[in-house]
Amino acid sequence: MIKIVEGGVTAAKGYMAASAAAGIKYEGRTDIALVYTEKPAACAGTFTTNVVKAAPVYWDKEIVEAGKPVHAVVLNSGIANACTGSEGKEINYAMASEIAGQLHVNPKEVLTASTGVIGMQIPREPLTKGAVLLKEALSNTKEAGTAAAKAIMTTDTVSKEAAASFEVNGVTVTVGGMSKGSGMIHPNMATMLSVTTTDASVSREILQGLVSEAVSDSFNMISVDRDTSTNDTYLVLANGESGVTIEKGTKAYEDFKEALFYVSTELSKQMAGDGEGCTKLMEVQVIHCETKEKAKVLSKSVITSNLVKTAVYGSDANWGRVLCALGYAGVDFNPERIDLVLEAGGERLTLIKGGVADHYSEEKATELLKQEKVTFICDMNEGTASATAWGCDLTYDYIKINADYRS
Amino acid sequence: MIKIVEGGVTAAKGYMAASAAAGIKYEGRTDIALVYTEKPAACAGTFTTNVVKAAPVYWDKEIVEAGKPVHAVVLNSGIANACTGSEGKEINYAMASEIAGQLHVNPKEVLTASTGVIGMQIPREPLTKGAVLLKEALSNTKEAGTAAAKAIMTTDTVSKEAAASFEVNGVTVTVGGMSKGSGMIHPNMATMLSVTTTDASVSREILQGLVSEAVSDSFNMISVDRDTSTNDTYLVLANGESGVTIEKGTKAYEDFKEALFYVSTELSKQMAGDGEGCTKLMEVQVIHCETKEKAKVLSKSVITSNLVKTAVYGSDANWGRVLCALGYAGVDFNPERIDLVLEAGGERLTLIKGGVADHYSEEKATELLKQEKVTFICDMNEGTASATAWGCDLTYDYIKINADYRS
């Protein structure tokens, strides 16, 4: 049984966070963040599957795969440090080593992450300045965690945090995380940066297994616009400060898993609902499907359909487009079995029954679609598996934001 | 050697066309078209791969697979006759048989096609009225062909036609076609209706083989918004009126293939350039790739990227997004080998050399991107295969058109 709690990366014991305005690209706002644990932490991660990977992604993958404990994650916004050649790799190393110097740890114990425009080099000097400022600002308060979450925002309009805790023999274990991600988000590591921390003691193997599972059901089930970035990074640090060790086959394991999944799902929904230009969060549940894999493919197909997204924006119950998106997902099903239900504001409306339009009120449908969160439930009526995907509507503001991004 | 000629479905000998305002859904415009050959024609076709298929698609697939000659194609706009259950199938049959009655042929010698909103039933009475009007209007003129092309438009802003001819022992053979398609277009039978006619005599087997090849390099290489429709239909009729028979291994075969490919490619580009809300045609050439299949996947990935499309709309040379789209295409390559060239208005500009930004003028890049046709040439520097895909920019008007489609 997990309990939802406030906070993000500083919710768990032994973690400190900080933000600073290093002047990397943005002016007048914070653009660099630090998450630090004095006690070394096991770490696991998943990264973009884009063949084109940013310098920090290569750095992190090596560290995660080496399996040694880490102490910190430094993240910057404004410049993605992608497509920056060997110079970019050196700058990324400099970022890690400046922080390592301030914290008196090894550079390889400092993970890095960047987000922002592709192709520009991160200037060297702000990294030195930023590392000093971050060290000075380190704090274990909730506010420090939120400050870090804000510093990594790019086109996000809100910072994203989530945390949950559970008890093991009276001892509290906490899992908390932060994310950024708004545009350029898509499954296969939805473009985003996410750092989750926990004070549980978890072996690297168990942690990596759970992280990959969590990603599969959360971060990989959201999409704003199908563009999988060069920078997607999801890191989880476990420093054992709670004194509780998580072993497979125990209730603690189940609770830990639930907490981790809660945090990753919650962060995913926050990102999907903050998609560039987004006015509505869309949720697509595919139920009674033959397999979970099929259900995932189907739900993601609907959530990524430009035509469904624009219809939602226009509050138009154009169920034909939903059916069409299911139909080109690439998996087989019997169209004559499908029921489609629209759910919003606590009310439900059946749009399709057995593959053809049900008798429903267009006015009612439009009213439901005007809510800030709309859910399509696609009942495939063929099995017992299900999956949920999240996304958002496609609006004029998306175009506005993206036709002019580099300004 | 082929010669580009004017016209569309009536360019080849022995074909007549017509349009009429049957009042199926639209008012004040033509909404039904007919293509007719008195001499029976071999026919081949390809259809949507969407699991959800419209009634006319089932009808046509059966006819094409049965392999018997046909006489006509009747196409309507306004209502797609998709997700219409058994009633929809009956209505589709009625559409075929009304025309068959007027032409004194068998209903199974009349192919059908529909485009428009999903889920509504086509009203019965306009079909009877429409068949009479079409029969009366049949003509073999160029204008009749264009009238048919106009009648099948939905959100298209222009009608689409293309034709080419070649000589075999002094006898002219012609291939001509029409298409409609604007929104809801994507590879795997880009949502569109297309009818191509030829006066060559071609066996069904040879025709189907060429049609599938042509589709692979043309219609399946365009995208407006990734939504593969429920109605995609591409039909080719060959009535032999020229007296020339096309056999494999001959020069006539090569010329016929070139003419067919020219028509399908030309129609594809016209559709891509008329994408809903489109202001610019985008062409993406992937060259020096390892395999043609890879090149296709890569070029289509770029053409369908919302972020690339919005950047083009904003005339922003955001090559990072192009690289990113190549990177998530799902195929492997070495990012450090890629060169990217922007071409427009006869001028070229190198954006990326060896995976990193080249030194180029942003002003120049913006100037090129303001052209109505922009081309990205992605040189993978790893092989000898290539492929080209077409699409268009993503604009406010796309949102406007699609957030409000059913009004």
Summarize the structure.
2 copies of one chain form a homodimer. Chain A has 407 residues and is an alpha+beta fold. Chain A is built from 11 helices and 15 strands.
Task: Explain how this protein is built.
Two copies of one chain form a homodimer. By secondary structure, chain A is of the alpha+beta class. Helix content of chain A is 33%, strand content 28%. Chain A is built from eleven helices and 15 strands. In chain A, helix 5 links the parallel strand 8 (193-198) and strand 9. In chain A, helix 2 packs parallel to helix 3 (124-137) and helix 7 (292-303) crosses helix 9. The longest helix of chain A has 22 residues, at 251-272. The model of chain A is unreliable at 183-190 (pLDDT under 50). The interface between A and B is large, with 63 and 63 residues.
- The helix/strand class of chain A is alpha+beta
SSE run of chain A: EEEHEHEHHEEEHEHEHHHEEEHEEH
Tell me what portion of residues of chain A adopts beta-strand conformation: 25-35%
Radius of gyration of chain A using CA atoms only:
21 Å
The termini of chain A sit apart by 47 Å
**Major sheet description of chain A:** 9 strands, mixed
Instruction: Work out the helicity level of chain A.
Output: 25-40%
**Biggest interface between protein chains, with counts per chain?**
A-B, 63 and 63 residues
